[in-house]
Amino acid sequence: MSVKSYLVLDLTIHDLSKFRDYIARIPEFIERYAGRYIVRGAEAEVVEGDWRPERLVIIEFPSRDHAERFLQDPEAQALFAIRHDSTSSRLVLVEGGT
Description:
- By secondary structure, this protein is an alpha+beta fold.
- It has helices at residues 16-32, 64-72, 77-86, and strands at residues 5-13, 36-42, 55-61, 87-95.
- 13% of the residues are buried.
């Protein structure tokens, strides 16, 4: 049985007009690898610690392999570049429940 994997993205948007292209086009790539949004751009409430995320996105994939193939998709690289240019972001990949 595969273990689900999650991409957790913490981002601060600096150029919304540029970032809109990413927002419009990235769901196609997420779906291509059987991913689905769990949290989509939500504001986080810090209840403990000093982590201060501005916007959180959590995407669930059926396996680590699916998530890694999404991250390595050659067609998605231009979109990732848009995200890098228009935001400050931190991204982690973590395995979770089955």
